[in-house]
RNA sequence: CGGGACGUGGCUCAGCCUGGUAGAGCGCUUGGUUUGGGACCAAGAUGUCGCAGGUUCAAAUCCUGUCGUCCCGACCA
């Protein structure tokens, strides 16, 4: 491709709208342009990289036994009602009406569609296992689209769904996808690590996320340096808080004391009260399926909402409003507690770290008052003990006892073992050998294609621009003649080299613009082509050209060796991404 | 949805506080000089200052509303 024949609108300055480096580079290197918040047009270079990521994903999915299909983006809401997710995913669903007034939804994901297909087309155990996948646009009504392609209203996703006749077979499918994912990201030149994950509204009981370590990520991951444990903090566990919960009772009974104006754990921990946070019980009020519930965690802990949701098996979980709280406890946030004044119908869920806690301080369910000398076993009616706390950095790993670290990461892939949640609801069943009907056991596997593309940029860049891994670079080689005058030796050689490289199957972009060398060099570095071959009059006079790998050292090459050397360089580099 | 910031030429931004005929750099056009790291000189074009109301003799500037963009938060009771 000739630079002048495509469209590469590079930007010298950083657009004000982009905060993180990968978003800035997407715009500066002329890969995408924004239509509106969370909606982007892919320009030629961006599209080429996108297609390369897709091709890698497709190749590995096919290799892992996937069958490619393409499902509708527009879907009837009925199947969403059937699966029950019309309720649980309402916030993320884009809905629209046709001229007859009938409602439709834009698919945020395709479990319902594929499960219905399997329900209709498959009947016998002989027809499994199957793994269907597609690369499709997804639509999600994001609360706040941000960071360019990272969290967008519309994005491209590879989603795959496995169907098996047994749990063991489903597990094998899951492992096959897990391995495929490892290969996919490696081939994209991305360093990722898998972590145990919460399953969220997708459902299921076993799940890993593939994470790209990055400060700009939207996930926190707890991990052990041994490599033996890593989990999303939404799911992570540890040996418990570093400061042990006091468990020796003084024998004293709960005593009310005035705390006017004190509504935070922090205020109680300061003068004149001086009650350390770990000796306090934090009382939270949630609205769950069955009504109001009290949640107790230690004062220095944070409730982990995903843990709460997954353990209650509750769909609609949210913090209670101030009014709801007052209606059921007759006190306002800041003075809440579970010692007294809790209606019998209100369940109390307490975090395991509070088991046996003694001498604790908690709200009295009376504004401006707290209790001290609270022994939880004696003084609080706990309905159920659950793991509800969020792991904190430094706590000990359950596998190795080493201190856990926490870092930010970008989620680029997610594999789930779904079980029979969808197959039961949408009637995807099969007849087994003994003539019995069983629900199909499912798994689902997603990769954010557009997000992966941006994650590559986030991970592969320097002060000059993008440093594409060869496997996903828009072009492998940037051919840079420093003169484009038709009769100049540099230009004539460039034309020749260009033809030869294309014939050799190298993806090359010829910078045929009549620009000064500085402009061409800067643009080629910004756009991040893996290697540049510069042809200038000065070195040409010595019979030489210059090979400059992006981020590497310059190599002087004899004119007659130029094509061979570039082919060799690219071939060597390509081999690094073959797995 | 709550909080904050910002909307001025294609891009980055100044001007707003203290109202008085809209600016700079980059980019663009033309001509010339340059030609190995985002050139230089000269001449030019490009704005209903996001939009709608209001205050005022006069609004980019003050007020109200609205739309858009970005950031933070949305468990810390």
Summarize the structure.
The protein is of the alpha+beta class and 579 residues long.
Written account of the structure:
The protein folds into 3 domains: 32-190 and 421-458, BirA Bifunctional Protein, domain 2 (2-Layer Sandwich); 255-386, YbaK/aminoacyl-tRNA synthetase-associated domain (YbaK protein, Alpha-Beta Complex), CATH 3.90.960.10; 473-575, Rossmann fold (3-Layer(aba) Sandwich), CATH 3.40.50.800. The longest helix has 21 residues, at 167-187. Helix content is 27%, strand content 27%. The two termini are 28 Å apart. With 579 residues, it is an alpha+beta fold. The mean pLDDT is 93. Strands 3, 7, 8, 9, 10, 11, 12, 21 and 24 form a 9-stranded mixed β-sheet that branches. The chain has a 5-stranded mixed β-sheet with strand order 16-14-15-17-20. A 5-stranded mixed β-sheet has the order 28-27-29-30-31, with helices on both faces. A hairpin with a 5-residue loop joins strand 18 and strand 19. The radius of gyration is 29 Å and the shape is globular. The chain contains 16 helices and 31 strands.
Rounded Rg: 29 Å
The number of distinct structural domains comes to 3
Overall helicity: 25-40%
What's the helix count? 16
Portion in strands: 25-35%
Instruction: Find the CATH topology of the largest domain.
Output: BirA Bifunctional Protein, domain 2
- What does the average pLDDT come to? 93
CATH architecture verdict of the largest domain: 2-Layer Sandwich
Helix/strand structural class: alpha+beta
Largest sheet entry:
9 strands, mixed
What's the CATH first level of the largest domain?
Answer: Alpha Beta
Molecular shape: globular
Unreliable spans are none
Number of DSSP strands?
31
CATH superfamily of the largest domain: Bira Bifunctional Protein, Domain 2
Straight-line distance between termini: 28 Å
């Amino acid at each position: 491709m000739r630079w002048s024949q495509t469209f590469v609108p590079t930007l010298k300055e950083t657009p004000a709208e982009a905060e993180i480096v990968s978003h800035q580079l997407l715009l500066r290197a002329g890969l995408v342009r924004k239509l509106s918040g969370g909606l982007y047009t892919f320009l030629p270079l961006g599209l080429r990289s996108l297609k390369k990521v897709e091709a890698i994903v497709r190749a590995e999915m096919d290799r892992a036994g996937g069958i490619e299909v393409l499902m509708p983006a527009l879907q009837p809401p009925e199947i969403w009602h059937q699966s029950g997710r019309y309720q649980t995913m309402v916030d993320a669903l884009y809905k629209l009406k046709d001229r007859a007034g009938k409602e439709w939804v834009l698919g945020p994901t395709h479990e319902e569609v594929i499960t219905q297909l399997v329900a209709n087309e498959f009947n016998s155990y002989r027809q499994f296992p199957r793994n269907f996948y597609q690369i499709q646009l997804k639509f999600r009504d994001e609360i706040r689209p941000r960071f360019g392609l990272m969290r967008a209203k519309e994005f491209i996703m590879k989603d795959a769904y496995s169907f098996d006749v047994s749990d063991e077979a489903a597990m094998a499918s899951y492992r096959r996808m897990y391995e495929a994912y490892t290969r996919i990201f490696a081939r994209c030149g991305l360093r990722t690590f898998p972590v145990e994950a919460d399953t969220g509204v997708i459902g299921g009981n076993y799940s890993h996320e593939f994470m790209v370590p990055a400060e700009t990520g939207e996930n926190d991951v707890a991990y052990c340096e041994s490599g033996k444990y890593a989990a999303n903090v939404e799911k992570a566990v540890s040996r418990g808080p570093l400061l042990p919960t006091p468990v020796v009772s003084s024998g004293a009974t709960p005593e009310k004391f005035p705390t006017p104006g004190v509504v935070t754990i922090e205020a109680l921990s300061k003068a004149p009260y001086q009650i350390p946070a770990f000796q306090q019980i934090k009382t939270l009020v949630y609205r769950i399926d069955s009504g109001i519930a009290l949640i107790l965690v230690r004062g220095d802990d944070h409730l982990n909402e995903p843990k709460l949701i997954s353990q209650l098996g509750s769909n609609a979980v949210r913090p209670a409003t101030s009014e709801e709280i007052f209606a059921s406890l007759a006190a306002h946030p800041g003075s809440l507690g579970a010692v007294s004044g809790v209606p019998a119908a209100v369940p109390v869920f307490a975090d395991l770290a509070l088991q046996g806690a003694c001498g604790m301080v908690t709200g009295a369910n009376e504004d401006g008052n707290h209790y001290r000398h609270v022994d939880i076993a004696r003084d609080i009616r706990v309905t159920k003990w659950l793991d509800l706390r969020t792991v904190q950095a430094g706590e000990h790993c359950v596998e190795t006892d080493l201190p856990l670290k926490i870092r930010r990461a970008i989620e680029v892939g997610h594999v789930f073992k779904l079980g029979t949640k969808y197959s039961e609801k949408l009637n995807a069943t099969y007849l087994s050998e003994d003539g019995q009907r069983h629900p199909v056991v499912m798994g689902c596997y997603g990769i954010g294609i557009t997000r992966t593309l941006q994650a590559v940029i986030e991970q592969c860049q320097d002060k000059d621009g993008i440093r594409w891994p060869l496997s996903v670079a828009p072009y492998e080689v940037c051919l840079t003649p420093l003169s484009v005058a038709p009769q100049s030796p540099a230009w004539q050689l460039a034309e020749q080299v260009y033809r030869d490289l294309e014939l050799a199957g190298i993806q090359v972009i010829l910078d045929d613009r009549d620009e000064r060398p500085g402009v061409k060099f800067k643009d080629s570095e910004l756009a991040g082509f893996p290697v540049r071959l510069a042809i200038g009059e000065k070195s040409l006079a010595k019979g030489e050209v210059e090979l400059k790998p992006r981020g590497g050292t310059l190599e002087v090459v004899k004119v007659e060796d130029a094509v061979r050397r570039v082919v060799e360089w690219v071939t060597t580099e390509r081999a690094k991404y073959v797995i």
